Amino acid sequence: MFDAEQAAEINRLIEEKKGEYAASATAAVSAAIIDGRVALMSKVDTAVKEAISANQSIVLATVQSAKSENPKGRLFEWAKILVPVIVTALLGVLVWRWQHAAEDRSRVKQSELEAKIDQNAEFLKAKLALNQEYFKRKMDALQEIWKQMALVYADANTAYQNPNEMTKALNSLGKLSESLEASKLYLGDDTYAALNDFWAAARDLTLKQIKPAKLEEKRATAKAKVYHELGLSEINTLSNPSLSR
Prior knowledge:
By secondary structure, the chain is mainly α. The chain has helices spanning 4-68, 71-161, 166-182, 189-206, 212-230. α2 packs antiparallel against α5 (212-230). The longest helix has 91 residues, at 71-161. It starts with a helix and ends in a 15-residue tail after the last helix. Mean pLDDT is 76; it is low at 54-68 and 234-245.
């Protein structure tokens, strides 16, 4: 058995060993913590360095890519985008101008056509009015001539039978001659010639140089020429019933 001193010594030694073990454990733990922190810092540092390195590589690669990009290629890409747009716009403008010009030409032609139609209409109206006036004067002239022909025909036949009536017949012949000259503009050449032949035959009958039958023949010829010229074959008189005889 141990005595008290020996027990106290053993307890002291045990306490010392505990202290040493505790100190040793504390040191070990501190060392482990320090080593862990160092390792962790090392890992963090490594990760940061790798991240920085990677970022720098990306930036460098981007810069390098930007530097190595061909400006002509970019221009070509822009050209592929812009050229169709510009060409389409130009074609649109050209088509619009062409349509506008075509519409202008159409309006001008339409205006010219309308003006020409109006001009022709006015010309036709004027021509129709002149034709109507000409035909009216022609009818009036022939009406007067027919009246005088009837008087000349009757007076010439009377003078042929009675020489005392010769003066009256000659006066009628003078009036008919004046009417023929005044109406020459409205008479065709054949009609004028036939009427002159009738006038000459009436004069000759008045002077007893021909027979009444000859005057009747010339009268029929003149009547037929006038009716044919005016298209009055179905009209037997203008205003004097004696013209139908």
